[in-house]
Amino acid sequence: MIDNPKDLLLYLKNLNLLTNKPKFWWPNYGTFEVVIGAILTQNTKWENVERSLANLKGFLEFEDFLNIDVNFLKEYIRPSGFYNQKAVRLYNLAQNIKQDFETFSNFQDNVTREWLLNQKGIGFESADSILCYACKREEFVVDSYTNRLLKSIGFEFESYDDIKYWIESGIRDSWDELKEYYEDNLNLCFARFHGKIVEFSKRKLTIG
Ligand code: 39A
Hints:
Number of domains: 2
Shape: globular
Helix content: 55-70%
Number of helices: 13
Mean pLDDT: 98
Low-confidence stretches: none
Radius of gyration: 17 Å
CATH superfamily of the largest domain: Hypothetical protein, domain 2
CATH topology of the largest domain: Endonuclease III, domain 1
CATH architecture of the largest domain: Orthogonal Bundle
CATH class of the largest domain: Mainly Alpha
Largest sheet: none
Strand content: under 5%
Bound molecules: 6-amino-3,9-dimethyl-9H-purin-3-IUM
């Protein structure tokens, strides 16, 4: 029986779900491309995002993306759906990063969850994806897969933040036991834990 986040992590870890995946799971971890992917993946499959990212070749760096024409952007990201809305939101987000942080590196070091949540089109999941995978912060991403998996093992929560707190505090409380697997890097642990949940769910596996 799995009754805490550490046991869930160790159960998933045993399944070797991230073999042949990048170390931090999300492709091009620590780059502006993650910000683009975090918006594009809303309400669509990751495979559609990959098609959009391939179309955006040459515009994936922050400084290049700032100069993209919005109408071209709309066409490039068409495979991920809601492309008119997502293009305008992504374009405005990039301009706001430039205005408030000047460089992407400064954004990575100084952006807050509150700043992200104040941007149009960024909810909890997108904000935490950007913080964890683009800005290398100790933030766990909760998504519908996480919700469903926890429900299947008997845990139900009232809000996004309740799940996030349960997982993050559970992992922090067991860190002495877990840190040897994650180079004593909590961001690496949260990045891989979320990645394992997504890969587990996409393979339609179940526990018990
Ligand atoms: N749903 C998803 C994903 N599925 C994913 N990968 C596979 C690699 N990423 C990065 C984000 N969301």
